[in-house]
Each structure stands twice: as C-alpha cells, then as structure tokens.
Design a protein that fits this description.
The structure holds 2 protein chains of 2 kinds. Chain A is mainly alpha-helical. Chain A has 12 helices and no strands. Chain A has a single domain, classed as Orthogonal Bundle (ABC transporter involved in vitamin B12 uptake, BtuC). Chain A is about 80% helix and about 0% strand. In chain A, about 55% of the residues are buried. Chain B has a single domain, classed as Rossmann fold (3-Layer(aba) Sandwich), CATH 3.40.50. Chain B has 9 helices and 10 strands. In chain B, the strands form 2 sheets. Chain B has a 6-stranded mixed beta sheet with strand order 6-7-8-3-9-10, sandwiched between helices. In chain B, strands 2-1-4-5 form a 4-stranded antiparallel beta sheet, with helices on one face. The longest helix of chain B is centred in the C-terminal third of the chain and has 16 residues. The radius of gyration of chain B is 18 Å and the shape is globular. The two termini of chain B are about 35 Å apart. The chains are: A mainly alpha, B alpha/beta. At the A-B interface, α7, α8 and α11 of A face α2 and α3 of B.
Chain lengths: ~260, ~260
C-alpha cells in the first residue's frame, strides 16, 4: 500500500511536468503512441523473462526516436505516423505475448494499471529513471518553453531545436514506460495531458501553470488510489476519472 | 560614431532559390552593414520573407552564398546577436501560458547556458528591454490579452533582451492601429540612431519611414538596391513603375 502510494506520487510529478511541455509543444498524441510502444517492451520482457519495466523503457525510447526521425526526414503527416505506430505496436505486443503463451493477467495489468502488482524492484527502477527524467526536463525547461512558444524564433536565437525535440520525446518515453505499471498504457496519456489542459484554463504564466498542473496530478493520483483501494476499483481508471473531474471543475470555475 | 572597417553583418552573393523548378529569388547579391537602417519592399509573393528566412538559416538557398559576420551560416554560433521578429508576431495563441515577462525572458535563453539560472545581468537586460519598449507595467499580464500594438512591443523587447546587433522585422505591424505604428517607427529610428542597432525592416509603409532609412531593397524575384538616402522615395516610385506596389506612398504624397 505504502509502496504503491510512493510510486503513484512520483508518477504524478513526472507525468504532469512532462505533460506541460508535451501539450504546449502540441505533442499530446505522442504520449498515447509511446504508451502502446512500451507495451511491446513489456511483452518481450514477459515472454523472454527480462524485467518488463526495463524493456518498456528501451522500446519506448526507440519508438520515440523513430517518430522524430520519420517526422523530420520525411514530410509525412505526423498524426498519421503516430496512428500507424500506435496500432502497429499494440498488434506486435499482442502477437509476441500470445506466441510466447503468456497472454494472461500480466499483460492485462499493464494495459489498465495495477498498483497491487508494484514490486520493490519497480519502486527502485521508477525512482532512479524518474529522477533522471525530471532533472533533464528541468535543466532544459527554458529552452523547451521557448521552442514550444515559437520554434522558428527559438531556432534563430541559437536553440538546438532538433536536439531538444529528441530529448523531449526520449524523456517522455521513459516517463510513460515507468507509468504504465500503475496507470496502464491505455490511460497514461490522460494523466499527462489533462492536468495541463485543466491548468491552462486558469490563464496564468508558465511557472504557475506547471505548479497547478502538478497539484492537480497529485490530487488525482492520491484520490484515485484511495478510492481504488476502498472500493476495489482498477487504479488507472479511477485516477483518470479523478483528473477528468478536476478538469471539468476547472472549466466551470474559469468560464467567462 | 567612429568609422569601423568591419565585415558586413550579412553578405549575400549570387543567391538563387527555386521551389519545384519555379524561381523565387534570382541572382541576389547584397550587403547589410553595421548600423544601417534598411527597408525591404516588394509585392506579396515577391520573395521578401524568403530572403529573410534564408538570412536566418530557416530555409536553404538553392545556390549562392550567405555570410554572417564573415562566417558561413552553419559555422556561425553567436545567434543571440540577431534579433528576429516574425510576421505573425502580432498574432499569438491566446491560450499559451505566458506573461509578458515570461516572453521577454525568452530573449536570454541561449546566453544563459543550460545549467545556469537567471542572473542579475539577465534581469537587468530584461528590465532595460522592457523599459525601452514601454511594457514594464504589462510585465504580469498574459500576452493573450494584449492589443496588437502592445504585443508587437513585447516581441521586440524579447529580441532586445539578447542585446542584438541587428534587428530583423518582417512586417510586424500587420493589424496594429495607426498611432501605435507611428510610435513604433519612432522607436525603430531611436534604436538605430541612439543604440546603433542595425535594422532590417520589411514594410509596406515606405513613404512614412523614407527619411529614416539609409538603403532600400526592392525584392521581386530580383533585388533592386537603392543606396542613396536622398533617393529612397524616387527609388520606391521607380520600383512601382516596374509593377511593384508601395501603396501607402501615394497617401503620403497627397498629404503634402
């Protein structure tokens, strides 16, 4: 129980802070795609007997780089790239698991999230990678913010836009891979995007927006996990409904 | 100001730019020297913005050479010396979480380095830039709610915060009221005369600023360069003879 809450809070921080950049950069859909790519890693891990979380991180990063590469080298429609990789990954994950004869509760728990299955090993992995991801985001936050506001002006000011894009998607890939254990790959996108969208309704500056989004994510995860324990509901879905509730309240409060 | 025999800020030689076999710019050669105030006119679609984008490295020329402070674009590192205010400066995404201060601070991004925080010097430069553009009292306002004229001044304050040696403005006053425009031209003149900042200004209002500028480039696939400050208006007239619009010129003349 305590272990689950610690992991949940770490993920709330990671998802909301990275989510702010993802939303402002108009990359919202990338979180969905990477969450499904991470499942391929989970599938390989389950079948081959490696740590599924580590495999999820590796495959998600690879997928993030592939997306950025396709986007920058070929002028394909970027939303189409995301759609192709999303369903392609899910299909691959399902095939790998069923070939390995492991289509069971394990994969299911990664689809929808399950706090009970969080092991001590998971806590350590999530803490180490999570800290690295967060530090990276904070180090480059002013560059990422500038690029999100105006990519071309940032570029003409000497910001390495291409490098930053790769960095952002890599960090997001790591965070998503870490999060699917608790929130589930079908639902992590919501935890990344909705707290920021809710915070944007308050129309305040950048730092305040990040803080509000962070608080919203923490409240949602705490409330969601508490409710899921008491009423034995799936944790990921309960968390997402909590964050949706906060979003609707934010919309109503800030209605003109 | 003492005479300096310095390299041109920009030196363009035999520049050609084609898109899908269609000539956009043809055999352009020009220099932009330190402390000059240059206006660029020409019909829409004549290649003004394309030329600027190539100077800034946002588009690559098909053939020809561009040097910036004597260096090839890809070897140039000190991009903070170049301040760029793009055409869409007066239209921004109103939902973006940015106060005026957030935006002007962006101007310090690349000189702060990845690991350093906002120094006293950064603060002073941001403050000075905002003072110069008369936006200090707007510091905590959201950019989304500003008027076109205010937003324009904020964008220039951001460019000034990096202590640029040259300001490149691409018709930044579209959608700005007349009084704001007049103040804006006075400010540009002041930045050029008092602070010695080189100004390159794409405009349709050549009649209004003719007395301030030193050189006129008329861009319509080819470049016509007018070097004589006394001849600016007649140059613009000549350009018009060749089918290049300078529509506000007429209004200006009839007033006399």
């Amino acid at each position: 129980m305590q272990r689950a809450f610690i992991v949940g809070m770490i993920i709330a921080v990671l998802a909301s802070v990275s989510g702010t950049f993802v939303v402002l950069r108009r990359y919202s859909m990338i979180s969905e795609t990477l969450a499904h790519s991470a499942l391929v890693g989970v599938a390989v891990g389950l079948v081959a007997g490696f740590n599924p979380l580590w495999m999820a991180v590796i495959v998600a990063i690879f997928s993030a780089w592939l997306i950025e590469y396709l986007r920058s080298e070929f002028s394909l429609y970027s939303d189409a790239i995301l759609a192709i990789l999303l369903s392609g990954s899910l299909a691959a994950a399902v095939i790998i698991v069923s070939l390995g004869g492991a289509f069971n509760n394990s994969l299911f728990s990664y689809l929808f999230g399950s706090i009970l299955s969080v092991s001590y090993e998971d806590v350590v992995t999530i803490s180490i990678f999570g800290t690295m991801a967060l530090v990276t985001l904070l180090l480059f936050s002013k560059e990422l913010y500038f690029v999100a506001y105006d990519e071309e002006v940032a570029k003409t000011s000497g910001v390495k836009v291409k490098l930053l894009n790769f960095l952002l998607v890599s960090v997001v890939a790591i965070i998503i891979a870490l999060s699917i254990r608790v929130v589930g790959s079908l639902l992590i996108g919501a935890l990344m995007v909705i707290p920021t969208i809710a915070a944007l309704q308050f129309k305040v500056g950048f730092v305040k927006t990040v803080m509000i989004s962070l608080v919203f994510a923490l409240i949602s995860v705490f409330a969601g996990m508490t409710l899921s324990f008491h009423f034995s509901l799936p944790s990921g879905a309960t968390i997402v409904l909590c964050v949706l509730f906060i979003f609707i309240i934010s919309l109503i409060i800030n209605r003109k | 100001m003492p005479m300096k025999f310095s390299v041109p800020i920009f030196s363009v030689r035999n520049l050609n730019f084609n898109i899908k076999g269609q000539k956009i710019l043809s055999n352009i050669s020009l220099d932009i020297l330190a402390s000059e105030y240059i206006a660029i006119i020409g019909p829409n679609g004549g290649g003004k913005t394309t030329l600027i984008r190539m100077l800034l490295g946002l588009d690559k020329p098909t053939t020809g050479e561009i040097k910036i402070f004597g260096k090839r674009l890809k070897d140039f590192k000190k991009w903070y010396k170049i301040g760029y205010v793009p055409q869409r400066a007066s239209h921004v995404d109103s939902a973006f979480p940015a106060t005026v201060l957030d935006i002007v601070k962006m101007g310090r991004t690349t000189q702060r380095g990845y690991f350093s925080s906002f120094s006293k010097e950064d603060k002073k430069l941001v403050h000075d830039a905002m003072q110069k553009m008369d936006v200090l009292d707007l510091a905590d306002k959201m950019v989304g709610i500003l008027s076109g004229g205010q937003r324009q001044r904020v964008m220039i304050a951001r460019a000034l915060a990096s202590k640029p040696e040259i300001l490149i403005l691409d018709e930044p006053n579209t959608g700005v009221d007349m009084l704001s425009q007049k103040n804006f031209y006075a400010l540009l003149k002041q930045l050029n005369k008092e602070d010695g900042i080189t100004i390159v200004f794409i405009t349709h209002d050549i009649g209004v600023i003719a007395d301030d500028i030193a050189k006129l480039f008329t861009i319509n696939q080819k470049a016509v360069i007018c070097n004589d400050p006394k001849q600016i208006l007649s140059c613009a007239d000549m350009s018009e003879l060749y089918g290049i619009e300078a529509h506000l010129l007429h209004n200006h003349k009839h007033e006399h």
